[in-house]
Design brief:
- By secondary structure, this protein is mainly beta.
- It has a single domain (2-6, 56-267), classed as outer membrane lipoprotein receptor (LolB), chain A, CATH 2.50.20.
- The chain is 10% helix and 49% strand.
- It contains one helix and 15 strands; from the N terminus they run βαββββββββββββββ.
- The strands form two sheets. Strands 2, 3, 4, 6, 7, 10, 11, 12, 13, 14 and 15 form an eleven-stranded antiparallel sheet that branches. It has a four-stranded mixed sheet with strand order 5-1-8-9, with no helix packed on it.
Length: 271
């Protein structure tokens, strides 16, 4: 079983509003306007960040785990890679492709070496849910605010709209199945920067034996020079998948971000 991200463009979103009576119109409209403004800031932030993300590389440490029925780890493997994202924009269609170069041999429990582990790609780029290319495939709802690591953040729920383009897909036996993701994002209300995304599939997909899928991506501020403002880059992405008989969890940790060009690299400054 392989998880990956799709690169198709999405349809533009429309605005839908319903009120039970004239008396209650004012409050929903204010909330809708606030949400629209936040989504606009987030969309701009993500559009700008996509360019930055394709100009850096980092170290990715991946832990793959498979659990036994007792919920104890049955098999575990660790790998380290040089990681970068390659951006292409051809004919107005955005494509982000991950590149991994192994820098350390995989280590772990090899008692069941022939039994495959879960391969999860692309979950560090779940922020594309808010990109103009994909946002039209989701409905968004304001969930108020919540403190996260001492900072007050806006909570936004998202639901994939059926029969529209998806940012993620499940690959099984050479075939891709688009995933209808839903979840919550924690967003800085002033800048629109995304601090955390929790996403998953709410319903089982019986045709391919998927019982549940959950993913969580945490972002951290990174600076590439003392005079530059911080950008929020993926720090950790966790993906957990269950079928009726199997349970996997992959943890991707990203560190040591470096800005690069053809001939130079710039070390990350301290936060």
């Amino acid at each position: 079983m392989r998880l990956l991200r799709s690169h198709n463009t999405s349809l533009r979103s429309g605005t839908w509003f319903c009120a039970a009576a004239v008396l209650f119109i004012v409050v929903p409209l204010v909330q809708a306007q606030d949400l629209d403004q936040l989504l606009s800031r987030t969309s701009q932030q993500v559009s700008s960040f996509v360019e930055q993300f394709s100009e850096v590389k980092c170290t990715e440490h991946v832990v793959q785990e498979k659990f036994a029925e007792s919920n104890k780890v049955e098999r575990r493997s660790e790998s380290t890679y040089d990681y970068l994202v390659i951006l292409t924009n051809s004919g107005g269609e955005l494509s982000l492709d991950e590149s991994r170069l192994a820098v350390a041999a995989a280590v772990g429990n090899h008692k069941k070496e022939n039994e495959p582990l879960l391969i999860s790609n692309g979950f560090a780029t779940l922020f594309l849910i808010f990109h103009p290319y994909y946002a039209g495939s989701f409905q968004f709802k304001d969930l108020g605010q919540e403190a996260l690591d001492g900072k007050q953040l806006a909570k936004v729920h998202f639901d994939h709209i059926p029969n529209t383009k998806s940012v993620a897909a499940l690959a099984v036996r050479g075939r891709e199945y688009p995933l209808e993701l839903s979840g919550t994002a924690w967003i800085d209300p002033q800048s629109g920067a995304i601090a955390k995304i929790d996403a998953g599939v709410d319903r089982a997909i019986e045709d391919i034996g998927l019982k549940s899928l959950r993913s969580e991506v945490e972002f951290t501020p990174v600076r590439f020079g003392p005079q530059l403002s911080a950008a929020w880059f993926p720090e950790q992405a966790t993906v957990e998948v269950e079928t009726p008989r199997q349970h996997w969890r992959n943890t991707h940790k990203f560190s040591d971000y470096k800005k690069f060009s053809v001939s130079t690299e710039e070390q990350v400054a301290s936060k």
